Amino acid sequence: MALDWQKYDLFQGTEEHQLLRQTMVSFVKDEIEGQALQNDREELFNLKLFKKMGSLGLLGLTVDPAFGGAGMDTLSSVIVHEELSSSDPGFCLAYLAHTMLCAHNISINANEEQKKRWLPKLCSGEWVGAMAMSEAEAGTDVFGMKSRFVEKDNHFILNGRKMWITNGTLDENNTPADCVLLYTQSSKKEISTFLIEKSFEGYHVGQKIKDKTGMRASNTAELVFNDCKIPKENLIGKEGDSLTHMMRNLEIERLSLAAMGLGIAKRCLREMNRYANERESFGKKIRNFGQIQKYLSESYAEYMACRTYVYNTARTMKLDQFGQRLNSDAVKLASAQMAKKVADRAIQVLGGYGYVGEYHVERLWRDAKLLEIGGGTNEALEKNITKEMEEKKF
Ligand SMILES: Cc1cc2nc3c(=O)[nH]c(=O)nc-3n(C[C@H](O)[C@H](O)[C@H](O)COP(=O)(O)OP(=O)(O)OC[C@H]3O[C@@H](n4cnc5c(N)ncnc54)[C@H](O)[C@@H]3O)c2cc1C
Q: Which of 332, 373, 381, 383 to mutate to test the pocket of ligand 1 (most atoms within 8 A of CB)?
């Protein structure tokens, strides 16, 4: 959808975007908010609620309607991630892994036959998807991955392990996701992409990773591949050509993670604004104290600066093109740090109450911390940004 941005407000977008925002605000209020605290405490992923998002057209948000998707754009992804994260960032991370890292990636990089085979199930919620890049010994250093595939008797055979995979398991019983979009290497050390289906011989969930600091409403798992037999038709793209898939998908991933930072900050601002009006100390509402005003005002200013940067990056990012690396990295770097800082100030404004779960901001602080690690650490982004600035002769 090519937009004439002269006509639209940066944050509102088109009527379609406004409708999406209204849908999300109602869905979050009616369905997400009530379950967020408990699922964080119990480390549970709400699969039933997740599947319901399929009937709202949210699980294939950017996928072509010909394959069951909603056919929406980059700004739509920002709206959905921002609103979900204002209530339940953990649940939102599971949504991101399924929708942007798996379904969206397939819709951009797979062939027509593969899209027909997989996308309708991912868009409806019949299947839950994941994306596996990281390994225990290789996160930032992608080319350090140790998993390997070889071609044998009209199949590919994969050996190795993947670590930290969101949606890698769906429950406490190590039930695998229905499919995993997986990056791995051949002996030539060139990256290829496969879609691993849960029925494949030689594939199982190693363990659910428990006791995470935050994002506890999403499952994270280790995946194990022992001579896993992959049919040739599950190779996405050509053998060895996946560096571009990976880099292109990282752009929308990082922008969506930046939008999650906005959602966290917006909620924390609302919580501290409300509390500063209710709480009295020394006979005055605490919003009259200069130090509390500094927490509120600086948080608002930093949130709005980031929000403008996120929405402007969404405005110019094309889903099927490569080339927004500098801004997708920089906007995630800025928004992740802003979200954690705003959540930290919110805890401070709420005092002792801010430190307990019922008041939400401590959970949001714990969730915000992941944004500085997942999808590229702060340090990795700093390295990339510095390189890009040199290359682009900024
Ligand atoms: C809750 C959660 C969910 C996740 N979900 C997924 C998922 O769905 N799929 C997936 O593939 N992965 C996922 N990850 C993995 C995540 O992307 C990695 O943890 C992240 O990329 C960092 O990799 P690492 O943990 O191996 O740390 P490392 O890369 O080993 O980094 C350790 C430290 O060294 C620093 N460092 C490393 N290299 C450099 C360098 N060149 N310059 C400066 N500093 C450097 C890092 O910034 C960091 O501070 C998830 C992680 C978590 C915690």
A: 373
